[in-house]
Amino acid sequence: MAPILERDVLGLIHAPLGRDAQIAATLLKEAGLCAKVAPTLDDLVISLDDRTAFVVMTEESLRWADLRPLSAWIDAQPSWSDLPFIIMTARGGGPEHNPAAARLLEVLGNVSFIERPFHATTFISVTRSAMRARRRQYEARMRMEALDEGERRLQTALQAGRLGAWELDLATNALTTSSTCRSIFGRGPEDDFTYEDLLRSIHPEDIGRMKEAVRNTIETGADYAVAYRTVWPNGSVHGAEIRAQLHRDRTGRPVKLVGVSADITERLKAEEQQRHLNEVLEERVAERTRELEEAHQLVLAEVSQRERAEEQLRQAQKMEAIGQLTGGVAHDFNNLLMAVLGNLELLRKHLAGDVKATRLIDGALQGAKRGASLTQRLLAFARRQDLQVGPVDLARLVTEMEDLLQRSVGSRIAVGVAVPERLPPVSADANQVELALLNLAVNARDAMPDGGAIRIELKEIEHTAEADGLVPGRYVVLAVIDQGQGMDAATLQKAIEPFFSTKELGKGTGLGLSMVHGLALQLNGRLKLTSAPGRGTTAELWIPVSTTDVPEQEQRTATETSAEASPKRILLVDDDVLIAMSSADMLSDLGHEVVEAHSGKEALALIDGGATFDLMITDYSMPGMTGAELAKAARDRLPSLPILLASGYADLPSGIEIDVARLAKPYTQEQLATMLGKVF
């Protein structure tokens, strides 16, 4: 609801005898306050509503009146409202000396008394105090409505993420669960589900681990996070992942656990299948190894070579399986972040004057953007991020990043750059190479907690033999060299594995080197690591030399491309209603007219019906008809229609060739405006 302005509210006056009503109305008008005179008490009650700021009445008008209708209205006020009443009493007739006036406090509640005769300044002062009190009530209502809206959005987000909410009272073990939470344990929406039911539903082999996690959270205050198998009433085995935080009272005593639950049955099945596949592969490898040992006892060089090849095959299969799983999770998370980022940005604009709300929203935005950065690393590891490969002047890229790198590693680290005068361009994605260089520099910084130096070198190498996964050819090598703690052979071997990290818990995702490794493979290059304990680490990113030169004309700056486009009529197509609503709000906030469609079929029906649009924005992954198929069908009908394709998977499947602008999810309103500026 829009805020109630002071000019929208008015005071009501009920003083039927003498000139009190006329005098009061005149004084209020001179003070810039709106007022309305109610001749009778019934008129007064009828006129009362949320926009009434205060009521001025004379004591004698209430002495013999039936106050029940007025009392009923007062009792029916919403929780935020306590309407101020100003009672004008006779000389010397204040509540201290006038029991009849004092009894009005019991009926009216929020009462201020003015003894007549009174000075005009006194009257205006009392009415302004009443106005201020009423304004605080309006502000309280807005805060309550904002909290209600926040709760609604939270429930929407929980439903979108298929998360079940729950709360456990530690004093009574009373468990409160949502219907989604109960369904994760095989219960219906109306079924009872106590804490004892929860414990009985956990797989016997996992119950001890669950109880230990609860105990640890209560004793240490650490976040509660555990995954375990569940046994449904029908005997089937499923999986649940539980996360929660500990709440304490004012004395610091733990009082309850509040958290969410998610169904991970499919994930557990996939992990079990992967474990089974690994066991089968290991058995086959072991069997084959035995055969080779028996057949080639006089030859352990050939056997060793075969063992290494089989180990590489097993690792490749494992990495491919993890990559597929990671890419899918990142895609779904990108879609969720799309709705969160868009709504938070718009909410921040609407609450620009509320300092506390802005601070809270900024914190949420930072968390969401960190989540978006994490999904980019996940997609890089899975080799599914969008690569805009072209000729890149690597020397210029490194030189221009020197200041950013120095700020990123801090004043305790010295950054040195060695760049040859002439260096050929490489075939790469400039943005991804920048991210890779930043990751390598941050890793180098973390390896030198007491300070040190990082050296960044570029050199051209002619690779002649096919080895280390590199085909013969010319490469530019980007090397990041630190003076840090270094790694032993075992750590070095695991360094590029996903989620492996030598940093403390909570200080690293273990995806930095995996992302750089994935990027190198996509570019037909290689990430080489050389390290030894106490001797630092050298990370080399090998990138093939480009067959074409860097264009002389530089790309437009972000300021130029993000210029606001004139208002357009835009067709927005997304099967996810939550994301469509968020994107439509961002476009409308930019001044554009938005028409929503939730499937390719619905969008084509609008076009075939004669509707005209300046631009179509469509999601790629939609059931029935993908965004690429919709784009082709729309181009058949309207060849000149600009089309913008958005997707949480930044890469399109192979075999799909379509000339449309691309926008990776999640995107901010600024990124959306920038892309619109490029399209138009």
UniProtKB/TrEMBL annotation:
Signal sequence interval, chain numbering: none
Coiled coil start-end: 278-319
Keywords, in A-Z order: ATP-binding, Coiled coil, Nucleotide-binding, Phosphoprotein
Residues covered by the Histidine kinase domain: 328-547
SMART domains: HATPase_c, HisKA, PAS, REC
EC number: 2.7.13.3
Segments forming domain Response regulatory: 569-680
4-aspartylphosphate: residues carrying this PTM: 619
GO MF entries: ATP binding
Record InterPro entries: CheY-like_superfamily, HATPase_C_sf, HATPase_dom, His_kinase_dom, HisK_dim/P_dom, HisK_dim/P_sf, PAS, PAS-assoc_C
UniProt cross-references to Gene3D superfamilies, sorted A to Z: 1.10.287.130, 2.10.70.100, 3.40.50.2300, Histidine kinase-like ATPase, C-terminal domain (3.30.565.10), PAS domain (3.30.450.20)
Reactions that this protein is recorded to catalyse: ATP + protein L-histidine = ADP + protein N-phospho-L-histidine
Keyword Repeat: no
Entries under PROSITE patterns matching the protein: HIS_KIN, PAC, PAS, RESPONSE_REGULATORY
All residue ranges annotated as the PAS domain in the record: 150-221
Keyword Translocase appears in the UniProt entry: no
PAC domain ranges (all copies): 224-276
Protein name: histidine kinase
Highest classification ranks of the organism: Bacteria, Pseudomonadati, Pseudomonadota, Alphaproteobacteria, Hyphomicrobiales
